[in-house]
Design goal:
The complex is a heterodimer. By secondary structure, chain A is mainly beta. Chain A is built from no helices and eleven strands. In chain B, a hairpin with a 6-residue loop joins strand 3 and strand 4. Chain B is globular, with a radius of gyration of 13 Å. The N and C termini of chain B lie far apart (36 Å). The chains are: A mainly beta, B mainly beta.
Amino acid sequence: NAGVTQTPKFRILKIGQSMTLQCTQDMNHNYMYWYRQDPGMGLKLIYYSVGAGITDKGEVPNGYNVSRSTTEDFPLRLELAAPSQTSVYFCASIQQGRGNQPQHFGDGTRLSIL
Amino acid sequence: DAKTTQPTSMDCAEGRAANLPCNHSTISGNEYVYWYRQIHSQGPQYIIHGLKNNETNEMASLIITEDRKSSTLILPHATLRDTAVYYCIVREAAGNKLTFGGGTRVLVKP
């Protein structure tokens, strides 16, 4: 099993550019999450989804958009990149409804906005 | 806001047990205690979780106090590869989100 796969691993953007961070999981998990982690800090929740077609805001959603058209994929879009969005982005998934399952995390996308 | 309090950092000698404390004094009856670690900016790795009883797996042991207001993660024989940031998190079994605090930066020294 690949688990949670994020692409790209690294990216440099110019201010004002847009891009989509990809996340896919092959565990048939219903819940998926996007977090960002600034240097030396813990993870902050951006958006999450409880199933295909359903998304909701987390703690720091401004400047981002998400969609969940399939169970497997949960892309995160930056429309107008700003320096404050320089961070490491982690995607995670979990199968809710099967007891106390832990979240599975991807290896992250390191994004720099210059 | 994070519901847990952890020391910022701690050192541990290689081969010795590492005891990582966590306070969660506002934990509610249906919230579990989860531990994750993050090695050198990789994705967080699940370690262990528990509700009331002490738990043990191949990675660690989790000791939860009787009043559930605090817990301790024990790495029985720390190795250099255990150097990481360790996060203690409380979450409902049916909860949607994990809230990460600052974690404890553990440095295992030879």
